[in-house]
Amino acid sequence: MAIFLLGFFILITLVNILFFIGYFSFASAKESTSNATPPVSVIVCAKNEAENLKDFIPFILQQNYPNFEVILVNDASVDDTLEVMEHFEELDSRVRLVNVQNNEAFWGKKKYALTLGIKKAKNSTLLFTDADCRPESNMWISQMASNFQQNKTIVLGYGGYLKNKGSFLNKLIRYETLLTAIQYFSFAKWGIPYMGVGRNLAYTSQEFYAQNGFATHLHIRSGDDDLFVNQAGTKKNTVITFNRASITRSIPKTDFSAWILQKRRHVATAKFYKKKHKFLLASFYVSQIGFWILLISLLLLNIHWPIVLGIFILRLLIQYTVYYKSAKKLDEMDLLWLIPFLEVFLIFTQLSIFSMNVFSKPTNWK
Fold it and tell me: What is the end-to-end Cα distance of the chain in Å, rounded?
């Protein structure tokens, strides 16, 4: 029995390490540059985001880019969102407004509102972010747009979260976001892109219409970003960008239950990914949870503990190498020393989310 447990531990750890080695594709990636400056339409869809719009739209309007417009989409808000948008429209001629009324067939669906925003756009290069997002620099549009070259029609950027040094939840959210970015950037480098984040995502209108928009998953409340990329992304048309000037930061949840609800929606959407993506993501998660359960069990049972400890250290060194290089690219270095604790906490939080989703469905995007 002891030899069987040790052998299984070695096997599951090997699977986990192979994923980490695969993630070197992003960790060691070099940023490509170009001088492309296509006209850009920045699209911000907002539902009850009046205060965030006041704070963050100025960061978009201050972008150093020669030709762009900002499409503000009011998704049937009940606060002062529409009035705030109208104010920006009056102040700046680059701002254009789409006011979405409640529609009986599409009520509460962000994809419907986004589709109207895309149809309003004058430019074929579309750049998406959220109302609570702030570009890290005034070169955000420039960095994202420069990747539209040759046959590249989809650009995946990093949408991180603002830091709160005294909050464990903040670190957990940012760690989960970092890990997700490592995965979707790496998958894209492998030639099998599976998702992007609407906080920082760009694609062409030609690609949008070639995919018939969100039609194939319009019935699913969430997934305007990841399901679209999962459907449309290929080895040939998808590129990643991780230059610090291309990063956006959002306001993270400050309440654990609110964050859990947000992650439940994301997990519920992931079941609609292509089979190969679901298999790979599930394999990584199973290898993670299996590693920690077997590690703790073997150490408690005192089974070949020097070998077990040596395997743990080897895995940790490989993991830290990948995460260090990735965190350095994405300016998340303060998370490194907490990685083992954050990893274990996140694994079992995800397990509880999977269990909750089996018995009840999460609610709408806002």
Answer: 51
CB 89 within 8 A of CB 6: no
For residue 98, report the phi and psi dihedrals to the nearest 5 degrees.
Answer: -125, 120
Query: CA nearest 129: which of 170, 72, 205?
Result: 72
| pLDDT tens profile 217-255 | 888 878 899 999 999 999 999 999 999 999 999 999 999
Q: pTM of this prediction? A: 0.93
Q: What is the DSSP string of 103-164?
A: -TTTTT-HHHHHHHHHHH-SSSEEEEEETTEEESSTTHHHHHHTT--TT--EEE--EEE---
Which positions ≥6 away from 37 have C-beta within 8 Å?
A: 65, 66, 67, 142, 145, 146
Mean pLDDT per segment of 10 residues, for the chain of length 366 residues? 89 97 95 87 96 97 97 95 97 96 64 95 98 96 93 96 93 97 98 96 97 89 91 96 96 91 85 95 96 95 93 96 97 94 93 80 54
Q: Determine the length of the chain.
A: 366
Output the CA–CA distances (angstroms, integers) from residue 218 to 36, 95, 101, 111, 228, in the order listed.
Answer: 33, 27, 18, 7, 10
Domains of the chain: 2-25+276-359 (no CATH), 31-269 (3.90.550.10)
Residue 217 to residues 107, 211, 214, 226, 354, Cα–Cα distance (Å):
15, 11, 6, 11, 21
136: Cα separation from own chain's centroid? 16
